[in-house]
Design goal:
Elements lengths: L13 H7 L2 H4 L3 H17 L5 H19 L12 H13 L1 H4 L7 H37 L4 E6 L2 E7 H25 L2 E2 L15 H7 L4 E2 L3 H6 L2 H27 L7 E2 L18 H24 L14 H24 L1 E2 L1 H8 L6 H10 L4 H18 L8 H7 L7 H4 L2 H6 L9 H18 L2
Parallel strand pairs: 3-4
Antiparallel strand pairs: 1-2, 5-6
Helix pairs in contact: 3-4, 3-7, 3-9, 4-5, 7-8, 7-13, 7-20, 8-11, 8-20, 11-12, 11-13, 12-13, 15-16
């Protein structure tokens, strides 16, 4: 018989029972559910609502259930609908009437809100740990390639020379913000809904501050309606997860391009690529492509839960049972994608000679040519036009700016002198970009140090 069956005269239809049950997916909340129940029972005992003897039986019973679940000795039942009722039923079967007292002064509404916050809080820490490992890989690669010149792009057109280190550190900076977004979300969700009851609290003299402290929350939630009826913390997590996956997807897109024969900037390790069933020459970047593809499912998780929540009146509605699967799916996706992506980047071979060859074509030093004239006293807009004319001349002659003779340069401006060739050399273009955040070694060294400091501060 269901724990709530007192008011009902007919059994639940089997189709409804299967449709209503959530144990198939919310069973992963068992640790959090048991931790919440132990804290709740202890608080009831401390407040004189539950006897010391009943509390001791409940604590021991819950510990035994936890051990049996982790040993694989518990089979959950859809008849008990969810993880909360499964555990309470098991507890009552094992310790008798004392188990029936556990649900005093709480509802499944505040119970599930508690479990979900506890679970997501724990899982965010795991995601952050994976991201920190990815950042460590990027710093390691960046140190190796602070002088590896490559084209920087805008509109997917070669634009200005940068270094591979700076390119990697751009993503490291994005992942740093992803970490702080997740941590902000984790901090905001760290308020305890337990004691909100179904929606209006309880008439029992409970101590919500005790349970909040016992479970590691900063405080109990101030409003009991809010405590059971919102899932903004789940939406905030899914939003942060979507932004994170977007960053991974952009990086994946570049790796996919870089390892193609059209670019050939990197070579993926055989352990992180696959072949074709028909074309023996193929080496496919499936890891990067799957990360790019899985980004869409995390976006879908966010949009799905936003749509579920958009018209719900206060307080709890059964629609909110749909909150867990999108969050679980997003977490599972992150836990899959981040470690394998980090391993792929760590193992890939960088091909500096190909990057430099690409940077030497496409007039990436045209801006530096204009800057050269500006530093000689010419207004930048005039210098810009002259540099543009030189690029046109080079396209007509099928040569680079460096290939033009000094005589040809002087025809457009007498300010050109022999030192122009040093000024527009690729290495000069990169090493002279010393402005804060630029590709010069001094700047990428500062960026690496900042990321490493961030990692160290999070791994103490």
């Amino acid at each position: 018989m269901k724990l709530w069956a007192g008011r009902f005269q007919k059994p639940t239809d089997e189709l409804v029972n299967d449709f209503n049950a959530s144990i198939s997916f919310d069973q992963r909340l068992y640790k959090q559910d048991i931790a919440g129940s132990k804290a709740h029972a202890q608080m009831l005992s401390d407040c004189g609502i539950l006897t010391k003897e009943d509390n001791e039986q409940i604590q021991a019973g819950l510990d035994g259930i936890l051990a049996d679940i982790e040993a694989g000795n518990v089979e959950f039942s859809a008849d008990n609908e969810d993880i909360h009722m499964n555990i309470e039923t098991l507890l009552t079967e094992r310790i008798g009437d004392a188990g029936k007292c556990l649900h005093t002064a709480r509802s499944r509404n505040d119970q599930v809100a508690l479990d979900f916050r506890l679970y997501l809080r724990d899982e965010i820490s795991s995601v952050v740990e994976n991201l920190l490992q990815l950042e460590a890989v990027l710093c390691k690669k960046a140190k190796e390639h602070q002088k590896t010149v490559m084209p920087g792009y805008t509109h997917l057109q070669r634009a200005q020379p940068i270094t591979f280190a700076q390119h990697l550190l751009a993503y490291a900076s994005m992942f740093t913000r992803d970490i702080t977004r997740l941590e902000d979300c984790q901090k905001r969700m760290n308020e305890c809904p337990l004691g909100s009851g179904a929606l209006a609290g309880t008439t029992y003299p409970i101590d919500r501050f005790e349970t909040a402290a016992a479970l590691g929350f900063d405080a109990p939630m101030r409003n009991s309606l809010d405590g059971v009826s919102d899932r903004d913390y789940a939406l905030e997590f899914l939003s942060a997860a979507s932004i994170l996956m977007m960053h991974l997807s952009r990086f994946s897109e570049e790796i996919i391009a870089w390892c193609s024969w059209e670019f050939k900037f990197v070579e993926l390790d055989d352990a992180y690529a696959t072949g074709s069933s028909i074309m023996p020459q193929k080496k496919n970047p499936d890891v990067a492509e799957l990360v790019r593809g899985k980004t869409g499912r995390v976006y879908g998780d966010l949009m799905g839960l936003l749509t579920v929540m958009k018209s719900l009146p206060l307080a709890y509605n059964k629609d909110m049972q749909e909150d867990k699967e999108p969050v679980f799916d997003a977490l599972d996706t992150l836990h899959q994608c981040i470690p394998v992506f980090a391993a792929m980047v760590d193992a890939m071979t960088v091909l500096p000679q190909n990057m430099r060859a690409a940077a030497s074509r496409g007039f990436l030093n045209a801006t530096d040519c204009a800057d050269y004239l500006t530093k000689k006293g010419m207004p930048f807009r005039d210098a810009y036009k002259i540099s543009g004319k030189l690029v046109y001349l080079c396209t007509e002659k099928n040569c680079t700016l460096e290939d033009l003779s000094l005589t040809e340069l002087k025809k457009l401006s007498p300010l050109f002198a022999p030192d122009v060739y040093e000024a527009i050399r690729l290495d000069t273009c990169v090493c002279q970009r010393k402005s804060y955040g630029g590709p010069a070694v001094e700047q990428t060294s500062m960026q690496i140090a900042a990321i490493e400091h961030f990692i160290a501060a999070h791994t103490k």
